[in-house]
Amino acid sequence: MKQWLVNKIGFIIIICTTIFGIVLYEPLAINLIDEITLLILFCFYFIISLTHNGSIGKGLFVFLVVFLFYFFYSLVINVTVPAAVLADFLQQAKPYLAFFSFYYLGVSFSKKQGQILRFTVLTLFSVLVIASMLGVLDLFFGHPTTFATCCFSLSILYYTFNHSKKSDLLISIIILSLGLLSGRSKFYGIFIIASFVLLFVRHRIVLSFRTLIISLFVFVVVVIAAWSKLNLYVVEGFSSDWIARPVLYKNAVNVLNDYFPFGSGFGTYGNEASRDFYSPLYYKYDLYKVWGLSPSYDKFVADTFFPVLSQFGYIGIMLFVVFWYRLWKLVDYKSLAEKIVEYKIGLIIIAFFLIESIADTTIVSHRGLLPMMILGYVLSPKRASQLTAEID
């Protein structure tokens, strides 16, 4: 199949995900738009791989083997109902399928497509600015966190395809800064790190005394910016048994030890499936008594990501760390190849998911798809250059 078709399909997927999967996701109430978009993307990649190469990529193959193992393991161990296992299997797979599809497709966008993306982002940003001035952001986003991650996605998308001028960098930061209106402490941290990387990182970061001092300074600034929530959930939270999020973290150790080494399986802990099909683990560990985790009020059951990893056991956590370590090495390779823009984008997206996963499930939600697609795009070994000559 010709590369120009791959490029156009990839372009359409990016545009649709940006408009309908992020900005207009809640106003249009198309709750399955991210699943539909991802299904089309993955099927397209799968067909191309089998017809053109006769096989799928090694990384994707390993991912499918691991996830299918955990799927059948979850059915056999029978901690929760099969419907919960299937629902969580599909949700947890989304970010990886988004990444691997773009990583192996090797999509390249033409100059015209880059201009269209620029126009799209600036238009959506203008709409959000007007909506914030009129005080009607609630029409687009039901929660400030959703608004903040939307601003991040628009900013990183803009910079990915528009970075040749200094003004492009400034525009990216301006778009990102709009998310500060969300008042989310973790976004303050994301904004500080992203702005620092965009403005000051000009080459590969190497371990040195200077790097350690700068990293410590940035870390302290991030902690100060997010101190109110850190104090609530970490300092005070872990000494109490009534705040849902710290309770999920503390009890994750019990899940790891009681279901050694592969965990309790899909749909059993800290995710939407475990809430919708109320997991037996919440009764086993008396979490049903905690405000926000009870069957009558379950708002905070799926409110953080890292505790979810306990359902995959110590082996699953190890595999998760290996996956992100491999991505880090790919990002680091970009700096060695003097592709500093891709290096910056990779650093920012990894930092974004690291911070978001502490207190949100962004990575497995509709808000996590676009950053994972962009990460796959910039790290793709098949993409010869960012903007190619347009082929009609």
TrEMBL record:
Cell compartment(s), UniProt: Membrane
Superkingdom: Bacteria
Entry-linked Pfam families: Wzy_C (PF04932)
The keyword Transmembrane is annotated on this UniProt entry: yes
The keyword Transmembrane appears for this protein: yes
Keywords, comma-separated and alphabetical: Membrane, Transmembrane, Transmembrane helix
O-antigen ligase-related domain span: 171-321
InterPro entries named among the record's database cross-references: O-antigen_ligase-rel_domated
Annotated TM spans: 5-23, 29-48, 60-81, 116-134, 140-161, 173-201, 207-227, 305-325, 345-364
GO cellular component annotations of the record: membrane
Membrane topology: Multi-pass membrane protein
Full protein name: O-antigen ligase-related domain-containing protein
Origin organism lineage: Bacteria, Pseudomonadati, Bacteroidota, Bacteroidia, Marinilabiliales
